[in-house]
């Protein structure tokens, strides 16, 4: 089933390094991943897991001291990893692959009017004249559901609220009708009610425009609502990926278990929240074996010596852990994340959500 | 009491002090009927607002709130609803424009004596949202944590101070060799721990935690929440927990107050609020939480709150106790409606 889908971005053995204080460290380590056309692909992980760096390579926006040490990124017949100068990137960055950043405050220029900032993109990338650009900009603002766009187009960014600013950023990103939209934690700075509005907007626009969305977040709640497929990142590697149902109902990697069990919704009354002990790995020096092993309560001896290969669980679901090896002891995921739907449904009033939803099938 | 050898000035001074004490003393009926809990802080008809180009903009209107001793009260609302403003008003960081805030039946709002203000600073402590902005970049952890006990001379000798500081830093899960380091050497979660240590070392009675975890990662979030809970239980502190994420507040709080546009629309024990939300805004807020479950999330319908469902043209709403400890902002007709829903 999977092979029928068209591949939009194909990443092969990608490694990204940084030079800091004269020493090299590898922040992305050997990622191979296909992202399909029209899907919403979510990347989840702690801060420092390399999720932002990974997607920055798609638009050539790595920091000065960052470099792609090996690997290929195939996008529409071109290898993006080979691009060197800004000139190479001109027809990709912003035009075919657009990015929405976390903080709508810093991604807009506070000294320029909203209208000018949208028109600038239209004039540069789509060669419109001023009049056409103004017309298109108003249309774009209307599409991201900003009321009264004819008037608001003359406003400065500070006159908009946080959610509205994020809408403007989305409008700018969509101005060039991109094929891929990268959302780098677009709702982390917003509060819950505005967050749902922005997520709905992205979902609706995707239906209309059929672009591919790459969604970076650390909030597992957001992922469940928006994503088709999820990749979990840890220590610069994708350690598990699959459809949303695979990840939530049949998680296989101990790190995914740990992430799921630290959800506050799952805490029983009076007990402590479970959390992941220890710190994320430092990238200075080589990491031997599995990067998660020191924090992993299910770690075996081999985890400290040799890195696990990607094991195939089903056609859509892969995980990188020795637990899936035929010689490994059979370990069940922790109790707390079994019957996830039922547990989460029980925390919320039936007035609010429909509890009759069938529980996800589990292997107990 | 008048003693024999008192001069008239001394008698007058004593009278004045008596009068002052009487003026400062406020005893309110607790909002909740038949409760055996002690009220620590109460707000009655508190109005807070700001002057914007000489134009008064009210932020919080007629706030009535009791904070009980030893509880965790969650304050939830969207940004701009005034939840931080309430926290800051209790801390005396911003003035209030009307009403009274009391602490153990003594007025703490408005004009106070210098000594009284000083005492309050010792009893109320705050944990801030942004761990990278709330610590002084130029001073080491030792100084940051001990600033409070230095100001109030809460130690006997230099050794005693060091002991206290390293005990506090160990309690939040850092090591005493961290004391000589500077804030930029720590990660976000560790910095938030320093912020907590700084508040806890004073042995405060009330901690106001203003969105302490919004800027943190999922796994670190859990650690910081556990820490706040641990201190609250061990040291019997009262916590006012301000947040916009209901799922986190549900875990940590005993009671939750939901705020909309400066009005408290619902207060209830936290499990009860999730079981039986009554006010339409609370329901809308509950559906807005993203659920970490794909199936439920797909089936979920988000309710959008519309103020026009209330008809307050004839009857004005007030905070009414619908069942024990469960208050809703409602007009008399709505009260009947809500009672039927139980």
Notable traits:
A: 364 residues, alpha/beta, 8-stranded mixed β-sheet, 4-stranded antiparallel β-sheet, 12 helices, 30% helix, 21% strand, disordered C terminus, B: 342 residues, Rossmann fold, 12 strands
Structure description:
The complex is a heterodimer of chains A (364) and B (342). Chain A is built from 12 helices and 12 strands. Chain A is α/β, with parallel strands linked by helices and 364 residues long. In chain A, α3 packs across α4 (130-143), α4 (130-143) crosses α6 and α6 packs parallel to α7 (192-209). The two termini of chain A are 27 Å apart. The model of chain A is unreliable at 356-364 (pLDDT under 50). Chain B has helices at 8-24, 83-90, 114-123, 141-151, 158-171, 188-200, 218-234, 246-252, 270-275, 280-288, 294-299, 332-341; strands at residues 39-52, 55-68, 72-76, 98-103, 106-107, 124-127, 206-210, 238-243, 255-260, 263-269, 318-323, 326-330. In chain B, the strands form 2 sheets. In chain B, strands 6-7-8-3-9-10-12-11 form an 8-stranded mixed beta sheet, sandwiched between helices. The longest helix of chain B is centred in the N-terminal third of the chain and has 17 residues, at 8-24. The termini of chain B are far apart. The model of chain B has no long low-confidence stretch (mean pLDDT 88).
Brief sketch in words of this structure:
The complex is a heterodimer of chains A (364) and B (342). Chain A has helices at 51-59, 86-89, 114-126, 130-143, 149-152, 162-174, 192-209, 220-226, 244-249, 254-261, 301-305, 340-346; strands at 7-20, 23-36, 40-44, 66-75, 78-79, 97-100, 180-184, 212-217, 229-234, 237-243, 311-312, 318-319.
